Amino acid sequence: MWRSVQTWRGIALIGTISAVALWLAASGQLVLYIHPRYVLFTVAMAIVALVLVVAAIAARAVVQRRDALQRPPGSVDLLAAHDGHGHDHAEPHDHDPLPRRRERALGLTAAGVAGLFVLGMVLLPPATLSTATAEQREINATAADVQALDEAQNADAAAVARFTVREWAGILRQTSDLGFFADKPVTDLVGFVSPDADDPENVFYVSRFSITCCAVDAQPLGVPVHLPGWQEQFPVDSWVSVSGEFVSNPSAQSLQPIVIEPSGVEAVEQPREPYLF
Which helix (H) or strand (E) holds 195? Predict the structure, then answer.
């Protein structure tokens, strides 16, 4: 049995992971894990991996059949017999030392953990990153988008209306001059609700994650909104669309100098692509 585990565990895991990747791509959920520009590459590599898995299985079957045909009648496959413990039980069992048993135990444990990981990917529905992840990483730590600030200075109303959390977060990181935000209202800014750590009762962030490669490098971005009692209407991690204007922050606890004073906040469905790329 141990020889069978050693032979097939890698092939089985590669085949399963490749199949899961293709399923995620077909269902449109692969973008929850990687940047869209890598989807085609990932799909191509998964297809190549599956082809190689099939080839490995076929090659193994051919070898076994050839060996069976070449083996003299009445002979015994010594490797199979040893693997099946086909030896004289009168002999002592000191030919299977403790290090070898540990090696087998470690190999089986590793295969089991990898199998559980793959099973979890299949059975558990993919989920987007949430406030729990944002709290582990500093919001707007990488939000300094100089290009967004330059574009906003001369942008017309239509261009400003298309600004996402990425652009507004980058601008707020670079300037707190209220004059800059005159005639630049926020229109239908979509993100998930994340509480402000300093004044969670009155201020929340309209948040999104920005991804460069995959979910591992995702960075949380957010635009603060002053709305006392927001928890009664919008649960944490729920998705909202916010419109309003930037004003000086009325909160005495929050460290954010400028916030959105909302003229409207509506609950919305999570976008098909929840991350910003």
Answer: strand 186-195
Rounded Cα gap, residues 84 and 262, in angstroms:
72
- 92-108 CB burial, b ≥16 within 10 A, e <16: eeeeeeeeeeeeeeeee
3-class secondary-structure state, position 241? strand
* pTM for the full predicted model: 0.70
The torsion angles phi and psi of 203, rounded to 5 degrees, stand at: -130, 135
Long-range contacts of 141-145 (CB under 8 A, 24+ apart): 141/219, 142/210, 142/219, 143/169, 143/170, 143/172, 143/173, 143/221, 144/170, 144/173, 144/174, 145/169, 145/170, 145/171, 145/173
Instruction: Flag whether pLDDT at 79 surpasses 50.
Output: no
Q: What is the 3-state secondary structure (H, E, C) of 200-220?
A: CCCEEEEEEEECCCEHHHCEE
Buried b (16+ CB within 10 A) or exposed e, 181-219: beebebbebbbbbbbbeebeebbbbbbbbbbeeebeebb
Question: What is the per-residue pLDDT for 145?
Answer: 64
pLDDT tens across 170-192, in order?
999 889 999 999 989 999 999 99
Choose the weakest-confidence range: 61-75, 162-176, 208-222.
61-75
| Distance, CA of 101 to CA of 76 (rounded, Å) | 25
pLDDT value for 37: 85
Round to whole Å and give the CA distance between 190 and 161. 12
Rounded mean pLDDT of 220-229? 96
Arithmetic mean of pLDDT, 11-15? 81
Spatial separation of the C-alpha atoms in residues 127 and 147, rounded to whole Å? 31
